[in-house]
Every structure is written in structure tokens, then in C-alpha cells.
Amino acid sequence: MLRHLSIILFIIASQSVSATELDTAPLDNLQDFASLIRWSGVFASLIIIACAWLLLRFIDSLVSNIGDQFVQRRMLLQKLQSFFQFFVYMSTAVSVFMLSFRVDERILALIGGTIAVSVGFALKDLTASFVAGLTIMIDRPFQVGDRVTFEGHYGDIVAIGLRSVRMNTLNDDIITIPNNKFLNEVVSSGNYGALDMQVVIPFHVGLDQDITLARELIQECASSSRYIHLPKPVVVLVQQTITDNYLAIKLTCKVYVVDTKYEKLFESDITLRVMSEFRKHNILPPAIAVKTA
Fold it and tell me: How far is residue 293's CA from residue 283's CA, in Å, rounded to a whole number?
């Protein structure tokens, strides 16, 4: 509480010093500035700050106790507490300012300058996000419903606003991303407006295994899944690689799921089927280790 009020009063004071340099009737020196302070009100301001701090501590304890007893109402109580805290902060700051300073045309000019600078800083990022939002709507690098990858986050775009984009991750988290972030970062869209999407599933087998049979089994398992999008082809690519210091054959299955919401179910279904078929046909994982110095 004291820290927030100190920041507010510091901003007002600092802006007053800078504004006096630009005002048509500037304060000549610090003595003139000190004459604007109502010293008799400083003590009353300290009492108001202490009362506000005690009130907020009491409300915080009250909300915590009620929230523990009525769990379903806890979120509502916390929202109301946030609004109340903001009201107390602003009311206390205004009261302290009115009691501590003699309000005249110079103080009003300083307040106006402070508000103008504060609003300008606040609107800078908001304006950038607004312009970026218009760019996204016109250029359309992705659409609502697309499954995208952005800065390590992976999920579905659920809303595109003028200020931000909301993504619902596969962990069911809602991530809010400012629009201006998309202007300089790479965004990967898996389906770009379509329901179906390609799913890439890697498998590894030993060099001495029947690679042709393993490839056919993967294609058969993928083609028989109930989540497959049949109009698109099933492709299995073969590559020799080193996995965890083992020489292996990597078989990459590229197949399309009928709906993006079934992506992980589709991947699990194919993986379980392939592992079962590999056991039936005695196709083993890599067993030849690479010697390291």
C-alpha cells in the first residue's frame, strides 16, 4: 500500500519539476515549490495512508476467510477485492494530494501534464497493438480456430481482438498475447483455416530389423485409425539416424487427422497400434550403440 502511494506521489512530484520548466509561469526555485505544500496536511495524510493500509489488510483477511468457507464464490470475491483495492488506492492518493498541496492554477497545470504523460505512455503499447491487430486481420497469418505455434506455446486461436490474441493451449490454459508481438515473430499455423491437419509421428527400429515390414505396418495402422482424414495420403519416410547414442532407422509417419481437436488422440491411437504390431512381428528397437571417445 505504501509502496503504491509512494510511486504515485513520486510521479506527480517528478512531473511537477519537469512541467515547471515548460510552463509559461514556472516556479522560480524550490522555495516556491515548497510554498505549494500544505505542511499541516502532511500529518493528516500519513494518518489516511495508515488507515487505508489497515483497511486493505482487513479486507484481504476477510476475503481469504470467506473464500475458504464458500469456495464457489471465491473467484467473485477476489474480483470484487481487486476493484475495491483500486478504489482505495485512487481515493487515498487523491485525498493525500488534496491535503498536502495548495491547489491553484499551477498545480492544476502540473496535474494535467502528469495525466497527459501517463496516458501517453499507457497508450503507446495500446496503439501499437491496435495497429498490429488491423494488420493481422488484413494479412491473416492465422485465423480463429487455427492450431498454431508461437514462442513455445502451442494451441488453438480462440479470439483475435484489436489489442490481443487469445490462445487455448492443449493444457487448457488461456494465453493472452499482445498483437504487436506477432509483427516480428514467426508464427506456425498447422491447419490455416481447415479442419484437418497433418500429424507427424516418429518411430525408431534397429538397423537389423525388417524395415520394409515396419513401414507397411505403420501405414496400415495409420490408415485404419478412426481419426484419419482419408482424402489425404499416408506417407512414411525412412531415415538412418543416431538416437540416444544408438544407430537406428527412423520411420516418420505423416498423416492427416480429420479434426485438429483429435490430434493427440490420433497420435496415441496410431502409436499404440504400431507398438502392438511391432511386438507381434518381433520388430525390435535400436540395440547397436555408438562408441564415444
Answer: 30
Q: What does the pLDDT read at residue 27?
A: 45
**Grid cell listed for 124:** 503507446
Which three three-digit cell numbers place residue 248?
A: 537406428
Cβ-proximal residues to 262 (8 Å cutoff; 6+ apart), any chain: 227
For residue 142, give the C-alpha cell: 492465422
CA distance 193 to 133: 18
Q: At what angle do helices 2-22 and 39-69 cross, to 10 degrees?
A: 140
Residue 236's nearest CA partner among 287, 209, 276, 270 is 270
Q: Which residue, chain included where needed, has cell 507398438?
A: 275
What confidence score (pLDDT) does residue 77 get?
86
What DSSP string describes 33-49? HHHTB-HHHHHHHHHHH
Q: Which residue has the cell 512381428?
A: 281
pLDDT in tens, 237-246: 999 999 888 9
What pTM does this model have? 0.69
Contact 154, 204 (CB under 8 A): no
Question: CA-CA distance, 115 to 109, in Å (whole number)?
Answer: 10
Handedness of CA 268, 269, 274, 280 (dihedral sign): positive
* Cα gap 79→222, rounded to integer Å: 48
Distance CA 136, CA 262 (A): 27
Q: Which three cell numbers stand for residue 35?
A: 510554498
